Amino acid sequence: MNIAVDHSWYAATAAASPPRPALAGDTRADVAIIGGGATGLSAALHLAQRGVSVVLVEAARIGHGASGRNGGQIIPGLRQGAADLLENFGETRGAALFHLALSARDLVVDLVARHGIDCDLALTGHLTTAVRPRDLDGFAREAAAAARLGYHRMRVLDAGAARAAVASPSHGALLDGGGGHFHTLNYTLGLARAAAAAGALLHESSPVTRLERRAGGVVLYTPTGTITAAQAIVAGDALLGPFNRRINSRIMPVGNYIVTTDVLPDGGAGLIPGNHAVSDSRFVVNYFRRTPDGRLMFGGGERYTPRPPADMAAFVRPFLERSFPMLAGVGLSHAWGGLVSVTRSRLPDIGRDGPLLWAHGYSGQGAVLSTLGGALLAEAAQGDETRFSQFAAAAPPGFPGGQMLKGPLHVLGMLWYALRDRTG
Ligand SMILES: Cc1cc2nc3c(=O)[nH]c(=O)nc-3n(C[C@H](O)[C@H](O)[C@H](O)COP(=O)(O)OP(=O)(O)OC[C@H]3O[C@@H](n4cnc5c(N)ncnc54)[C@H](O)[C@@H]3O)c2cc1C
Fold it and tell me: Ligand 1 pocket, 316 CB below 6 A?
């Protein structure tokens, strides 16, 4: 098997999912949705459940994007933790954003149970390991801020306890008992089944190539059909391409790559005895977890260009072996990658411009936030902006340099931080 090219463990172990037909001819809907990831599908499900007519178009297959290929790590909250949110937004708004973001995890757990989605959901906790001794100060500050806001699931582990939890060098860890991991592609396919059962029409192989605003709504064009709708939800995240200047200006795609090892003799129990999801405190994060079939899934390394490395397995291996020296030379079964969309503030960009609504830019922490993002868009499309507006009011600034220069300037910034990872 050639694992140098995109070959994901999720695709290899996913539930059967027969292709859905491409959009054919001209159709009408209350809401048209671009993108069959968790954001778009959650919006479709929540709208269809309330009797709204919905047509969702996906350029490739359902789950083709980040929702079908991420690390499957359930990390409660936002990339800005409680302490940063309080500092940046003050007590009231900071607390509201913190609690709203935390609800994403509970929403996913609820949907999995309600719709019987078989996705290996393991609520075993998430650990952030400290690569520098000073990280522990930040962990203590975060656990204290979260506790002050009524969230008591965080605990700081000293170096001994962290090494007992993860057989990888660290100076300690922050445990969030609300975290865990899941089979993200099976979750996304399950959301699609639930949305379709609720009445949403889902089409694959239907890339939207043009969007026209008209009096009273929008028209979406795909190569094989059109959708005329009162509102459109844009949920293409990093894969959307240059579509709309406002929507594109706040997000930047970053390439990120993952491998799974061959089945380990002890199923990985010796590496992560508590079966936690784990990420480290580096700017260019290494993240890893066990799979139910006894492998280690490991993500590491970033590329600031959408072009993947020629050999994804070889690209990730040095990061894996640095985190787990005892796995030097281990066989790798699968390797794949995807594009993470990041924003300048690392908060998602959720907003509206007339009949267009969007949510994206979860900045590497969208495995469960995307489901919340879709739910908030569904509420806003029905005229209830109470929760939606909390995020819309905290939308990140655009990247400096406009469409031409935002890439190079951002890459320079990211490289600077990546260099600091190496120099400590
Ligand atoms: C490698 C990787 C690892 C990650 N690991 C984690 C993790 O462990 N934990 C975590 O919390 N987050 C993680 N993330 C982030 C998380 O996966 C994303 O934030 C989240 O899945 C975004 O969901 P989405 O539905 O908004 O976008 P996507 O899942 O990317 O879906 C967008 C869909 O829109 C479609 N599309 C785009 N343009 C068009 C168009 N013009 N017409 C029709 N369809 C279109 C795409 O084909 C795609 O299927 C990771 C991301 C990557 C890439």
Answer: no
How far is it, in rounded angstroms, from Cα 191 to Cα 37? 9
- Quote the CA–CA distance of 103 and 85 in Å, as a whole number: 16
Verify whether ligand 1 is closer than 6 Å to residue 372 (CB atom).
Answer: no
The angle formed by the CA atoms of residues 262, 264 and 265, to the nearest 5 degrees, is: 140
Amino acid present at 285: V
Q: Is 201 in the pocket of ligand 1 (CB under 6 A)?
A: no
d(CA 213, CA 354): 9
Q: Count CB-CB contacts under 10 A for residue 379.
A: 19
Cα of 118 vs centre of ligand 1, distance in Å, is 20
Helix (H) or strand (E) run with residue 142 in it: helix 135-148
CA of 400 to the centre of ligand 1 (A): 24
When pLDDT is cut at 50, 70 and 90, the band that residue 1 belongs to is very low
253 neighbors 306 (Cβ within 8 angstroms)? yes
Shortest-distance Cα residue to atom 16 of ligand 1: 366
* pLDDT over threshold 60, residue 420: no
Q: How high is the pLDDT of residue 400? A: 74
* Ligand 1 pocket mutation pick from 67, 243, 391 by most atoms within 8 angstroms of CB: 67
Greatest Cα pair distance in the chain? 64
Task: Look at ligand 1, atom 25, and give the residue with the nearest C-alpha.
Answer: 37
**Cα 181-144-376 angle, rounded to 5 deg:** 50
Phi, psi of 20 (to 5 degrees): -100, 145
**For residue 5, what is the DSSP state?**
S
Q: pTM for the whole thing?
A: 0.95
